[in-house]
Amino acid sequence: MTTVLIADDQPLQRLGFRMLLESQDDMTVLGEAANGTEAVRMTAELHPDVVLMDVRMPGLDGIEATRRITATGDRTRVLILTTFDLDEYAYAGLRAGASGFLVKDAQPEELLSGVRAVATGDAVVAPSLTRRLLDAYVHHLPTAPGLSPAAPEDRRLAPLTDREREILTVIGMGWTNTEIATRLHLAESTVKTHVSRILAKTGSRDRVQAVILAYDTGLVEPS
After folding, report:
1. Model pTM?
2. Domain HTH luxR-type, which positions (predicted)?
3. Across the 223 residues of the chain, what is the mean pLDDT of every consecutive 10-residue run?
């Protein structure tokens, strides 16, 4: 059973999400938050698998709430809801630690599959789209706390082997596992093993965060 916390300042929007989620046999809604402060508090109390997080809320917004939730190291993952698929809020949400984002006019099936994917540890945004976001906004928004650009000698890269560093670089460039396997002449199962080790060694929550790490450490530069 996937547990969800809904964070949105509009009651009708929360009701709609609740009705959709609870129509599924494998999902249950643990609670609703009307602002970011409530979302942070309720996440700490309820430990949901997924927080469905609106961005624009009064007081503490969804971006800062996401940052505080992911900073705890808890298993809860955040799925950001934005108005446009390539806007500054999607960028900021990913930088804050969200595992993905969906636009608010997504189809119900997309929302449900997104929640399921995030709950199982997958990222609900392609690495190539993450790179487009970073390329578009990395020069225009302040760097997230603790994620300042650094030299390739960044301590987060220290545990990686040369091959893992190479694969992290191409992950940052938006390559899929299949592309990595083909271009680097590796079995796809080997690539998956490398990716899993990279995530574990660098403390990246998912592939999206690995892309961001590749930017932050200078392995990949904006095009």
Report:
1. 0.76
2. 153-218
3. 95 94 96 96 96 92 95 90 76 87 86 90 72 69 46 78 95 89 95 94 88 88 75
